[in-house]
Automatic annotation (TrEMBL):
Single Gene Ontology BP annotation: coenzyme A metabolic process
EC numbers on record: 1.1.1.88
A GO term for molecular function: hydroxymethylglutaryl-CoA reductase (NADH) activity
Signal peptide: none
Record's keyword annotation contains rRNA-binding: no
Protein name per its UniProtKB record: 3-hydroxy-3-methylglutaryl coenzyme A reductase
Reaction(s) catalysed by this chain's protein: (R)-mevalonate + 2 NAD(+) + CoA = (3S)-3-hydroxy-3-methylglutaryl-CoA + 2 NADH + 2 H(+)
Superkingdom of origin organism: Bacteria
Annotated pathway: Metabolic intermediate metabolism; (R)-mevalonate degradation; (S)-3-hydroxy-3-methylglutaryl-CoA from (R)-mevalonate: step 1/1
Family, as annotated: Belongs to the HMG-CoA reductase family.
Organism listed in the record: Flavobacterium urumqiense
Length: 438
């Protein structure tokens, strides 16, 4: 049994590490050495990372890869991807190259509206509440002026506030539903600050509203928070070309390929089990770029999957069609991203990634991220409907198996040479290594 610890957050980093090593590890000195091995040798850089969160003991590496040759709306980009899955960056690069000679990717931002809500309980006459809101709506804007001033200078701010009656879902439940434009920032802090002020204004104004009874004056605010579901913060990415141009090494019969590809997408449109895996492949591309550019991938994940269920059944985020001999493949996803504020000005590798992307606006980053998702989905479906996924996947995974067995340099050369012409499977590699070592 391990012991509980009190005042842990007050301990120094060294003390925390010593405690954890002694409490949980059979060889504490080795555990400590491992943690320290991952510290950055530059003290300032390490301190920066230490202070992102509480109780930092070391850094957790994930590779940052790059996928070049993405032709998006006529401009080339090299896309940064932070991801641990072996085949993702290779698939992105391959797909980027493929579409760069077929017109590239087209991406458009459809809308950029963000959402936040004040959830509250009102016990009284609904028509009086409606009248109260109509008469005090302007106050919600004036009371938040100090918060919105800078955002307004950048062309953003509060777009609208509406009162929603939700009593059909929960007794006495109402909400202020506000929409925002946050320009190049993701806007979480801005939105939440506005909402908390709305909540204060709501309570104050209600408490002195003459038409309300004492009970009606006593509005209970349950919480004020942005929504990560942003169905009106939408971006579309698309590729298309005449069917015959799809020809390449693995696509000898482009018409057959295009038809099978469309069928694969249709299956994901109607079958939730497949849709989840299909969309997971899309998220391989999206999360990797979102993470590399310092954005909140949990928010993006939550919002996108909710969007995939918007019609009451979980479905594919992407779609494909063949019309008049033209193959078109596209997706439409909600993405609330920022290119200023938050980690974007703090994390050195995030700054690097954004500079590599030529310091994009939030709208440009939405397009890049959507394209990365579409590219990843194209790569997965191309493999699935032709060679199968394992061929490419296992080729990329070979390095992981080699590392697991701590192969020597000489062994690595022999293993790679052999598996250039043989199917890679975990057992096949293990057998080969064992034979080599006999
Ligand atoms: C693996 O990370 C992603 C895939 O399963 C996606 C798909 O099946 O479309 C290959």
């Amino acid at each position: 049994m391990n012991n509980a610890v009190t005042g842990f957050s007050k301990l120094s980093k060294e003390e925390k590490i010593n405690w954890i090593a002694n409490e949980y590890f059979s060889t504490p000195t080795e555990a400590i050495a491992l943690l320290k091995n991952y510290w950055n040798s530059d003290k300032k850089t390490q301190q920066l990372h230490d202070e992102f969160i509480e109780n930092t003991i070391t850094n957790f590496y994930i590779p940052l890869g790059i996928a070049p040759n993405f032709l998006i709306n006529g401009q080339y980009s090299t896309i940064p991807m932070a991801i641990e899955e072996s085949s993702v960056v290779a698939a992105a690069s391959k797909t980027a190259k493929f579409w760069s000679t077929r017109g590239g990717f087209k991406a458009t931002v459809i809308n950029t509206e963000k959402i936040g809500q004040v959830h509250f309980i009102y016990n009284g006459d609904v028509s009086k509440l409606n009248l109260f809101f109509a008469q005090t709506k302007a106050v919600f804007f004036t009371e938040t002026e100090s918060i919105t001033k800078n955002m307004q200078k950048r062309g953003g701010g509060i777009l609208d506030i509406v009162l929603n009656d939700k009593t059909d879902l929960l007794p006495n439940y109402f909400q202020l539903h506000a929409t925002f434009e946050t320009k190049d920032s993701m806007g979480a802090n801005f939105i939440n600050s506005c909402l908390e002020q709305f909540a204060k204004t709501l309570k104050e104004e209600a408490s002195t509203y003459e038409l309300f009874s004492e009970k009606e004056k006593d509005i209970h605010v349950v919480m004020s928070i942005l929504s990560n579901y942003v169905p009106n913060c939408l971006v579309r990415a698309e590729v298309s070309c005449p069917i015959e141009e799809l020809t390449e090494k693995h696509i000898q019969h482009p018409k057959e390929f295009a038809e099978k590809f469309v069928q694969a997408v249709q299956i994901a449109e109607v079958e939730p089990y497949r849709a989840v895996t299909h969309n997971k492949g899309i998220m391989n591309g999206i999360d990797a770029v979102v993470l590399a550019t310092g954005n909140d991938f949990r928010a993006v994940e939550a919002g996108i999957h909710a969007y995939a269920s918007r019609n009451g059944k979980y479905s594919s985020l992407s779609h494909a069609k063949i019309e008049n001999g033209i193959f078109t493949f596209w997706l439409e996803i909600p993405l609330a991203l920022g290119t200023i504020g938050g980690l974007t000005t703090l994390h050195p590798l995030v700054k690097f990634s954004l500079e590599m992307l030529k310091k994009p606006s939030a709208k440009e980053l939405m397009q890049i991220v959507a394209v990365a998702g579409l590219a990843q989905n194209f790569a997965a479906l191309r493999s699935l409907t032709t060679t199968g996924i394992q061929e490419g996947h296992m080729k990329m995974h070979l390095n992981n198996i080699i590392n697991q067995f701590e192969a020597t340099d000489k062994e690595r050369v022999l293993i790679r040479k052999h598996f250039k012409h043989h199917a890679v499977s975990h057992n096949a590699v293990v057998d080969f290594i064992e034979n080599l070592r006999k």
